[in-house]
Amino acid sequence: MRHNTEKLAALRQKLQTLQTRHQVVALKTGTEVEDMSFDEIAVMREISIASGTTLMPLVVKIGGSEARRDMRECLAIGVDVILAPMVETVYALTNFVETAETIMRETGKRAYLAMNLETGTAVQNLGAMINSKAFAALAQVTIGRGDLSKSMHLTVDDDEVLTVTQNALTKLKRQGKLTSVGGGLSVHNIVAMADLLPSDRFNTRHIAFENSEAFARDAARNLSEGLYFEQALYEALAAINPGRAEFYNERNKQLEERLPRLRISRTAAV
Hints:
This protein is α/β, with parallel strands linked by helices.
């Protein structure tokens, strides 16, 4: 995949604006539902670095708790956080941590470890996972409300999903873990989520926001600017890799549903 230096520089500039004006604290992608290749993940890494210095960390969700090749590729690219999806049991968590630690020893490269909490089964087993030795190795836990709600046969903004998410966050905060909440976030619900969920961060598919007072004061605008960046990212990736243009065009259509029908005036060139 041929990189377009000008397009990447423009994205990097937009990312810097998001960082300074809209409480964006990390880039996020993955090989699972994000469906990005390692070449595309390398582009994300390149965007997040300026003059040899990391602007913000890159979080990558791998294909499974024992996705060894994914782990090796992520470490070679230099990602900051490796996130395991669908961790539902102590067994799965232990396998993830032990596998990651083994590969990091072999390669001599390090990354922080994180897991996704995204099913009713995972929530039921959260106490046991917290009490496990492997849990201590995690730096972050992300709650995916989209898959969580589907596993509960409810909508993403159902009151029961909200309560389950709140309870899980309370348990995780007691353990001192960095928390992030994603799944189904849009301009239509982010204000309520920022008010009701005691999460350190909120994340979309490719952006993580600090859940600060500054974010909450203008949550809908901040989220919108992050989603506009994602659209610009998809447009750039489609131009860099025309073979994936249809895929990224479809992703942009999906983003439109989460944005205002009449776009709010942008404060950043994204």
